[in-house]
Amino acid sequence: MQSGATALEYARTSSRASKLMTRTGPLSAITVLDMSQGIAGPSCGGYFAEHGARVIKIEPPEGDWMRHLGTRIDGMSSQAIAYNRGKESLAIDLRKPEGRDVALKLAECAEVAIESARPGVFERLGLGFEALKARNPDIIYVSVSGWGQRGPNRERPMVDTIGQAVSGFMSAARSREGAPVKVDVPFIDAFTGLYAFQAASMALWGKAKGSGARHIDISLMQAAAHVQAPNILEYGFVGRPPGLLNPPAGNYRTKDGWIAITLVNQAQFEGICRAISRADVITDARFTTVAGRKENVAALRAILDEALTARTTAEWVGLFEKEGALASGINTYSDWLTDPHVQAVEAAPYYVLADGGKVPLPHLPGQRRYDASVPTVGQHTRALLTEVGMGSKAIDRLLASHLARQGGEEH
Questions:
Q1: Residue 121 in contact with residue 92, Cβ under 8 Å?
Q2: Chain-wide mean pLDDT for the chain?
Q3: Which residue, among 51, 178, 186, 34, has the nearest Cα to 115 in the 3D structure?
Q4: Is it the case that residue 219 has pLDDT exceeding 90?
Q5: CB under 8 Å to 374, separation ≥6 — which residues?
C-alpha cells in the first residue's frame, strides 16, 4: 500500500474494523467498491454483500438510475431491492474532482472495484483500472459492459433486450408463427452479474498478497452467448440452427388455460400419445423417430391442439403424470408463490421493507435467506467521508454544493 493510504488510518482502526467484526460469511474480510449502476454490476456487488463482504456503493446524488424504474416499492424499484441489500451508500458526483478523490481513497482499502459504464468513461473520470491500480497494486477491477473492453462495438450501448437480440437468443425463442420472442425478464443482465461475481471470486481465491492487480472484462454479449453455448456449438458444427430439440415439446391451450409439454425419450413420447387417447400416433410412420417428428411437427402439434382443449390444465397434468409423460401448467407468479412445494421449502420468504410492508423475495439458491436492508441514497455518505479523513466542515460544504447527498438514517 502506498503512502497515500495514510488518510485511511481511521478506516483501518475504527469504523471499518468494527463493521468487519459484525459481518459473517466467507468474504467477511473483503471490501468491495461498487461504482456500478443498473442490474449487472450492482448484482455482482450484491452477491459479494450476501457472502459477507463489505460493499460500498458509490452512486450519483440522484441515485442509481435503477432505483427509479418500474413500480415504486419502499421508495425504489424491485431491482434495487433485489441487488443492493446489505450495501453502504455513498452519494457523490464522480464527475467532479472531489468525488474522484474520495473514490480513489476508498479504493486503497478495497480488494475489488466494480464499474459498469461504457468502456473509456471511467478512464476519462480518472477512475479506470490504471488509476486504481496506482493507488492499490493488488486490486481486482471488474468492468461490466455491453460489448466488452475491446472490439469495434466496445462503445455501443447495450441493454438486456439488445443482448437477447444480438446473441441469437430471439432467433431460438420463437412463437408458433415463427416470430422472434423477447423474454420480459432481464435474465441476461442477471446472468452477467453472476458471471462477474464468479470471475472476481475466483480471482480472489488463492490470490497471494502482492501478486498484482487484475482487470476482469465481463460483457453482456459474452454472458448471453455462454448460456446458449450448446446451441452455438451445434450451429458451428452443422452450419445451421439446431432446430427443435424434442418435438412436439411446447405450450398448448387447454380448456381453461395453458399447459407445457416436453419429453426427453421415446417412452415419454408414447406416454403423451396415451394420455390424449391417441395410441395410434405412436405407430404412425411420420412420428416414429425424432427426425420424423421434427419434419412433421406441424401435423403432430395439430393433433395435440385438437385433443388438449377437451380438458382442463389440471386434468391433463394428472393424466400425463399417470402415463409417465412430462407436463406442467404454465404458472403465473401468483401460482408459483402459492404452490405448496414453493411454500414448504420457503423458496421466496417474505422480506420486510423499511415501512413495515412485506414482499416475497426468492433467495439465492444454495444460500440462506438474506434479509439485509437496502440503503437509501446517500445513507452512509457522512460516515464514509469521515472515514476517508474528511472533516465535518468540508463534508458540510460538499453537501451544500449538492456534489454529495446525505440520505436518511439506517432502518
A1: no
A2: 91
A3: 34
A4: yes
A5: 74, 76, 80, 81, 84, 85, 87, 354
How would you class 176 by CB atoms within 10 Å of its CB: exposed for 0-12, middle for 13-18, buried for 19 or more? exposed
Kindly state the DSSP code that residue 228 receives in the 8-state scheme.
T
DSSP annotation of 282: G
**Cell numbers at residue 76, please?**
425504489
- Give the architecture-level CATH label for domain 3-228+355-405: 3-Layer(aba) Sandwich (3.40)
Topology of the domain comprising 250-338: formyl-coa transferase, domain 3 (3.30.1540)
Question: Cα separation of 264 and 267, whole Å?
Answer: 9
Q: What average pLDDT does the segment 4-11 reach? A: 37
- Which residues touch 217 (CB under 8 Å, ≥6 apart)? 143, 145, 148, 149, 150
Provide the CA 386 distance to its chain's centre, in angstroms: 32
Name 92's bridge partners: 404
Helices (H), ranges, 85-181 = 97-107, 121-125, 129-135, 160-166, 169-172
Tell me, what's the pLDDT at 224? 96
Question: pLDDT tens-digit profile of 50-96?
Answer: 999 999 999 999 999 999 988 999 889 999 999 999 999 999 999 99
Cell numbers at residue 391, please? 472533516
Domain positions in the chain are 3-228+355-405, 250-338
- Residues 302/289, Cβ–Cβ less than 8 Å: no
pLDDT per residue over 313-371, tens digit each?
999 999 999 999 999 999 999 999 999 999 999 999 999 998 899 999 999 999 888 99
Per-residue pLDDT reduced to its tens digit, 262-275: 999 999 999 999 99
Please identify which residue in the block is written with the cell numbers 473514490: 103
Closest CA to 53 of 192, 185, 201: 201
Q: What's the predicted TM-score (pTM) here?
A: 0.89
